[in-house]
Amino acid sequence: MKTGLVLEGGGLRGLFTAGVLDVMMERDIKVDGIVGVSAGACFGCNYVSKQPGRILRYNVNMTKEPRYMGLRPLLRTGNLMDPEFAYHTLPDEIDIFDKDTFNKSSVEYHVVCTDVLTGEPVYKHLTPPVDYDFMEWLRASSALPLVSIPVELEGRQLLDGGMSDSIPLKYFQNLGYEHNIVILTQPKGFTKKRTKLMPLFHTLMRKYPAVIDVMNRRHIMYNAQLEYLAQEEKAGRITVIAPDDTLPIGRTEQNVEKMKRVYQMGREAAEKLF
Question: Left (φ > 0), alpha (ψ -120 to 50) or beta: where does 189 sit?
Answer without folding.
Answer: left
